[in-house]
Amino acid sequence: MSQEATIRRGVRNARYAAIPNHVFEDARLSMEARWLLSYLLSKPDNWTVVIGDIIKKGNCGRDKARKMIAELVDIGYAEREQQREDGKFGASVLVIFDEPRCATAAENAAEASGVAILPQTDLPATALPAPVSPAPVKSAHSNNSDSANTDYQNLREGGRDAPEDGQEPEDPRKIDAAFWALVKDWPGFAGMPKEPARKGWFALTADERREASERFARWLQLLKAQKKSHTPAPSTYFGEKLWMDVPAQDEAAKPANAMAAPFGKLWSATRIAELLLPPSGIVAPPTKFEQMQIDAGQVSLADVMAEKRMRAGWPSVNSMQERARSAQGSMCPLALEEAGQGFQAVKRDGDLLAAWQREHKRRGWPFPEGRLPEWVYFPALEGEGDLDFLVAEAVERYRERIFDYLANRSKGDDHAA
């Protein structure tokens, strides 16, 4: 066996973080929560982030970001603390630790040496130092000993993005004027503190300020459509980057669905996605004839109900397959178009198609009936080995890839119910 190293590391410099191995190996945390913990531990001790930053850096939705934070709190890598300002309660913050804290240690504030703080209120969302300076330690989780190169230092100087070569730095007066132009008609802003919102505005990049302004009117429309009784403060809008909940103008103009040809990539991606959702159809109890067969021992109740569930559990899939038998396409969500590009063509009557049929039977899914076209698309297999095992793996990889889509669909079904 070759002794050549399989892990090759680049030259070390100031832009790397030393993070304890157990952060990546703690099986109690999901992979997403491990990423979030390592991301926060890579920041300087006085780093301040907001949930909008997690959403952007993690390329995830607000619900998933909050779920990852909740995991860190549950396991003990994070604790919520209530700050005091001028003798009054201030923002509730989240302190992050590189070792999970037990309940008794968490009660001792003197031991809290947090390395990241996440504001939970409408107070300023800028990256300011924590109100109590962390204990001086040789941090194993700061990714930079030169604070002049950190994002935090750039924030203190008034903007996170340094101007590119040949570009003039932004004029603070113009940034300020844009702020007042945006908030002048903000619902309820007349009675709110102005400086927290202004600091939050200056903490954004130029592109973020542009997006925040462009999407503001449509964000208000979204709140109205959702029948929200309260308009969040500007500091919350800027700090949590709430405008990201609103699609960009070009995205909003795109149709949500498209007619997809039967057994093509988008059609197949939609069919498998629907099957990955819990069955929503009404499954009828055994008929009198079926009950007679069950009583006579000719068939089991489990087999009868499994057949009924397969034929009635996923009405949308049954409709797609019924239309496909007449060579008719179906309206499919374009949100699955990219995921469907990774599907592979499977030849009719081949061993791989037979493996997909067995996987459908194992999961209790309906398989298209009748004669199929010469090529049918399914999630791509990886590696070599037993076809049944590889097919099952391909389904789970596809489930992980469209996790957000399935979660949103499940929410929509819950609301409809």
From TrEMBL:
Compositional bias segments (type: Polar residues): 141-153
Ranges of biased composition (kind: Low complexity): 127-140
Region (Disordered), start-end ranges: 127-171
Protein name: Helix-turn-helix domain-containing protein
